[in-house]
Every structure is written in C-alpha cells, then in structure tokens.
Amino acid sequence: MRFIGAGARPGRPQVDHDRVFTIPNALTVLRFMGVPLFVWLVLAQKDYGTAVVVLVVMAGTDWIDGYVARRFDQASKLGRVMDPLADRLALIAVAVTLVIAGVVHWLYLAALLVPDAVLLVLTLSYFRGHPDLPVSRVGKVRTGLLLLGTPLLVLSRLDTPFAGPLYVAAWIVLGLGLAGHWIAAYNYFWAILRKGRMQSHHDGGTA
Fold first, then answer.
1. Whole-number Å distance between alpha carbons of 49 and 170
2. Beta carbons within 8 Å of 26's beta carbon, 6+ residues apart
3. Which of helix, strand or coil describes residue 113?
4. 76: number of CA atoms within 13 Å, CB side?
5. Residue 166 pLDDT greater than 90, yes or no
6. Please, which residues bridge with residue 180 across strands?
7. Among 3, 92, 151, 161, which one has the highest count of C-beta atoms within 10 angstroms of its own C-beta?
8. Which residues are CB-neighbours of 167 under 8 A, at least 6 positions away?
C-alpha cells in the first residue's frame, strides 16, 4: 500500500463535498485536541512516554483521515482547509512546547515559523483568507518526516540505552523534514503568486 495518496481510486477524481460531519473531519478534530494534551503532558507532567503515544496517534490520524477521505469518497471542502491547518498547528505547538521544555533549540522553531510567516503575509495580501491550493507531494513528505522525527526526539529524552541513537536518528529525520519544509514553502510561494496575479488580472478585467 502506498503512503502518499493512499486510498485513491484509479480513474475516479477526488471530489470535495460540502459535508461537515465526516469521519476524516472527526479525525482532524481529534488531532486538534491532541495538541493541548501533548503540551500538558510535557510541560506539566514531564510524562514523555505518554506524550510520544499522543504524537503517534496524531500522526496516525493524519494518514488515516486522508485514506478514508479518498477511499470512501468523504473528501470535503472543510477538510481541505482543516487538515493542513491541523498539521501546521500541531507542528508549531509541539515545537514551542519542546523549546520551552529545553528539548530543542529555538532555531528549530524559527526554521518552522519563518517560511509559514512569509506565506501567511503573501496569502493575506492576495486572498484575505485561505488560498485553496492543493497540498503538494513535497509538503506531504515534509509533514510525515516532521511527525516521525518529533516522537523519536521525545523518546530520546527517556532514560534508555537507545537514547543516543534515537537522538541522532531523530535529527536526521527532522533535518530532512526541515529541508522539505523550505522546499515546499518555496513552491507554495510561487503558486500563491501565480494564483494571486491571475485573480487580480481577472478581477481587473471584469471590473
């Protein structure tokens, strides 16, 4: 089974419906709820073991909701907006939490925030809202790597013989994820510019 685009039905294009109450949307909401739970476990309880379980569940729902949406024709316009938003909130909130807990340096957080801040400013200047662009393959791989590397990094905080190798493995995966993050941001930057200019040209021509 392929991981990217899993559940897609050959010859049948994906249609985004107007539905709100779907299984994929419920899983996305679950992912939102996992964020404050992770923050509480790390900062208040110092329970890194359970925090890893929460991260694994969050990462699992990210893959499952996409599979269910494609396989069972439950893709929705709301989900198309909520899913990447949940991913971004999770990645940034987890990074902030780990910076506060002293697990990662603030430069890691900056590497996540700077591209997103640039894209946010560009998006608001053109669309005043969501640009409604499809998630790129690089973006999906980036998210997967960051969601995999983060629990590995948290696991390395546990007092086990594998702490050292886990730490190294985590930063290899996170490094690849950050590289993908910047590449995806570069691609989205030009996609937003193209769509924004086309929209401005169309609006000017019909005014």
1. 16
2. none
3. helix
4. 17
5. yes
6. none
7. 151
8. 153, 156
Note the pLDDT tens digit of each residue in 12-32: 666 677 888 899 899 999 999
CA-angle at 147, arms to 12 and 5, nearest 5°: 10
Look up the pTM and report it. 0.83
The angle subtended at Cα 123 by Cα 118 and Cα 124, nearest 5°, is: 105
Tokens of 136: 């790129």
pLDDT at res. 1: 40
Phi, psi of 185, deg, nearest 5: -65, -40
Q: Are 180 and 147 in contact (CB under 8 A)?
A: no
- Count the Cβ atoms, other than its own, within 10 Å of residue 154: 26
Q: How many CB atoms lie within 10 A of CB 170?
A: 21
CA–CA gap between residue 73 and residue 8 (Å, rounded): 9
Nearest to 65 by CA among 82, 50, 48, 51: 82
Residue found by looking up tokens 């929460």 in the block: 54
| Distance of alpha carbon 189 from alpha carbon 74, whole angstroms | 29
Question: How far is the C-alpha of 13 from the C-alpha of 19, rounded, in Å?
Answer: 17
Amino acid, single-letter form, for residue 143 = T
